[in-house]
Amino acid sequence: MRTDQIIERFGGVTKEEPLTTLPKDMVLSNTQVLESVNPFFGYYNDGPQVKKKLYVYLVLESHHPYELVVRATEQVKKRFRHSFDAVPGCATRGNITCQVIRVKDIKNFGQVIQLQELYQAEGIKFKKNVAPLKKEMTLIRLLKFFLLEPNEGGLYMDHLQKNVGYFRIPEFIDWEDFKKLTTQVKFETSLLFFDAATAFFSENCQLVSLVRIYKENITPTQVIPIKDRYLRLLG
């Protein structure tokens, strides 16, 4: 695809994954970092077992403005000797919600402390005394920019993540209703083995509601029947 056909949008993703607290010797003293032990849970929990990338969540103290986190990330990337991706968000377990920075594309857990130190130097404060988690399903909301390759029928492929596609839906769906809907979609056995999340982006001063699909080596042709099944059930 030509680069002039790629569109940039700002929005977010909501998903649910099991999180586990990293051991104390892997993180800065008196802080908490969570690992997504099964990222893209709906795909890897049901489908093939392959080596998965590391996804960690730096748990923050109180509220940090979006701009502060993004600018801090820009500065950390200048000083960190390896590439990584980081976006702000929040993680909710029960009635407790904590602000987080989701970090991916790090090579190993040994890089976590260095990242925390660099973020601290940029004014980011980490939360203390949080109850540890062990493979506990957690609702995660992330804010991020998308680089998308438009396809026909309200379908988009992620330009940076080859395993991710999106499609438009006519209205917002809350997470609990979306989980039930996804279970119904997967009753169509030919569509098994994908992870689904809700998403949105801003366009023409409005929020566009989306479904995000993850599947190894997914193509637009594979997204279309999943999209059609969701839209049929939505009526």
Verbal overview:
Helix content is 23%, strand content 36%. It has 235 residues and is α+β, with helices and mostly antiparallel strands. Strands 1, 2, 3, 4, 5, 6, 7, 8, 9 and 10 form a ten-stranded antiparallel sheet that branches. Helix 4 crosses helix 5. The longest helix has 15 residues. It starts with 6 loop residues before the first strand and ends with a helix.
Summarize the structure.
With about 240 residues, this protein is of the alpha+beta class. About 25% of the residues lie in helices and about 35% in strands. The longest helix has 15 residues.
Number of helices: 5
How many strands, which pairing sense, and closed or not: the largest β-sheet? 10 strands, antiparallel
Helix content: 10-25%
Element-by-element helix/strand order: EEHEHEEHEEEHEEH
- How is the quaternary structure best described? single chain
How large, in whole angstroms, is the Cα Rg? 18 Å
Structural class: alpha+beta
Net shape = globular
- Mean pLDDT comes to 92
CA distance, first residue to last residue: 33 Å
β-sheet strand percentage: 35-45%
Q: What attributes characterize this protein structure?
A:
alpha+beta; 23% helix; 235 residues
Question: How are the SSEs ordered, and which strands pair?
Answer:
Layout: E1 7-21, E2 33-36, H1 41-44, E3 55-59, H2 66-79, E4 85-93, E5 96-104, H3 112-121, E6 136-151, E7 155-158, E8 164-168, H4 175-185, E9 195-203, E10 206-214, H5 220-234
Antiparallel strand pairs: 1-2, 1-6, 1-9, 2-3, 3-5, 4-5, 4-6, 6-7, 7-8, 8-10, 9-10
